[in-house]
UniProtKB/TrEMBL annotation:
Species name: Lactobacillus kefiranofaciens
Gene3D superfamilies for the chain: P-loop containing nucleotide triphosphate hydrolases (3.40.50.300)
Record keywords, A-Z: ATP-binding, Nucleotide-binding
GO MF: ATP binding
Keyword Membrane carried by entry: no
The protein's name: ATP-binding protein
InterPro entries in UniProt: P-loop_NTPase
Length: 369
């Protein structure tokens, strides 16, 4: 049997854990024309499951016959892609309706521009889209536009400016984006983009540890592996609910335990190094490098504590900074989900073995000096 775990980004995993009712709630909300979810941003660090979430919402939404789902990606011409995708995703009935729009013709891959329009401008696409959305509205068809990893650039600015018009005129077009915390906070700096920030924010929390344990139990036991409850709960703890960690750990354990068909503490010890290396390379390096110098000092002060949960008081003493300064960085890191607050006045790292990673980075930097 093939390894059922898949620690790669941007693919719906075979083993998918539901985050409670969140997806169903969002899908239901989208059917309400005045829902705050009409414009929403799923945000969180790399590997928490944003793309998977967005894909799953899209998959569910498009099961209803009165919905079209169009997936856009940064780096392409958003307006042009939207025109093409609306056409491609439409039923043949609807395609005929689009073809009836005066002056428009489509080929198998989308819009065919006439020769005199070989250099279409923004307003060319706006005009075309508004015609298409008007037809869709007449037919009672709603559209969900998804945009993975939104970043502030001219392309997105133009798109958002146009989307705002659609929204103001009550076209049934919803927009759901994902974004890394640092890219979302950049949207604040652009007037047009602040419109997005007023939308609904969906912060993805950690996957549930007992759900992870149950899932590992089912997968490994069903495939004939020997594993004790104690080992299963250790595995769940090793992931700390981090979605990428869940797939990665499952994947590594599955591969290494192929011969013995036994998952025990020795095996976990054996794969731990590989687990850490992959976490570092594929996620932590990027997450850490997006932090500011002060953020890094804060997390280092946390990592240097012997405790898992660190009091803000201790961090303040170690940083030797006034309390409002420390509170500000605490807030920033909480927003970015790098840390979580445990008890009052206490914080802990969100990601598994992130403390070890931070300390290792620090040792490397010390070595250079
Ligand atoms: N709900 C989930 N259940 C199980 N695995 C998940 C879930 N969400 C994400 N994953 C896995 O976590 C990893 C990262 O997911 P992804 O959606 O690419 O994260 P992001 O877009 O936030 O960087 C992938 O390997 C994916 O299969
Ligand atoms: Mg992603």
């Amino acid at each position: 049997m093939n390894n059922p775990f898949n620690p790669s980004f941007r693919r719906i995993p075979t083993i998918f854990l539901n985050r409670g009712q969140l997806i169903n709630e969002v899908v239901e909300e989208l059917n309400n024309p005045n829902s705050p979810y009409k414009v929403s941003i799923v945000y969180g660090m790399r590997g928490v499951g944003k793309t998977t979430f967005l894909t799953e919402v899209g998959r569910k939404v498009k099961q209803a016959p009165d919905w079209l789902v169009v997936n856009l990606a940064m780096g392409s011409n958003l307006m042009a892609t939207l025109v093409d995708d609306l056409y491609m995703k439409a039923s043949s009935d609807l395609q005929k309706t689009f073809e009836s729009i005066r002056g428009l013709s489509f080929s198998a891959v989308g819009l065919q521009l006439s020769a005199d329009l070989s250099k279409p401008t923004l307003s060319t696409y706006q005009g075309i889209l508004t015609n298409m959305f008007t037809k869709l509205r007449e037919k009672g068809i709603k559209v969900l536009i998804t945009l993975d990893e939104a970043k502030s650039n001219t392309e997105l600015k133009n798109f958002v400016a146009y989307y705002q018009i659609l929204n103001r005129e009550d076209y049934p077009v919803a927009l759901m984006m994902t974004g890394l915390p640092e890219n979302i906070s950049e949207l604040q700096n652009e007037d047009v983009m602040t419109f997005l920030l007023r939308g609904k924010r969906i912060a993805l929390s950690a996957l549930n540890l007992s759900q992870i344990e149950i899932s590992y139990n089912n997968v490994f036991k069903r495939s004939g592996f020997q594993v004790t409850e104690d080992t299963l709960s250790k595995m769940a703890l090793m992931t700390m609910g981090y979605a990428y960690g869940f797939q990665l750990l499952g994947y590594l354990v599955w591969n290494v335990a192929q011969k013995s068909k036994t998952v025990d503490q020795d095996l976990l010890d054996e794969i731990k190094l590989e687990y850490l290396v992959e976490l570092d390379q594929n996620a932590y390096t990027k997450i850490f490098s997006s932090l500011s110098l002060q953020d890094k000092k804060f997390v280092l002060a946390m990592a240097q504590s012997s405790q898992h949960r660190v009091s803000i008081k201790k961090i303040r003493e170690r940083l030797n900074r006034p309390s409002n300064f420390v509170a500000n960085y605490r807030r920033r890191l909480l927003d970015d989900q790098v840390i979580k607050s445990t008890n009052y006045g206490e914080v802990a790292f969100t990601l598994p073995f992130f403390k070890e990673y931070v300390l290792q980075q620090y040792r490397f930097e010390q070595g250079l000096e």
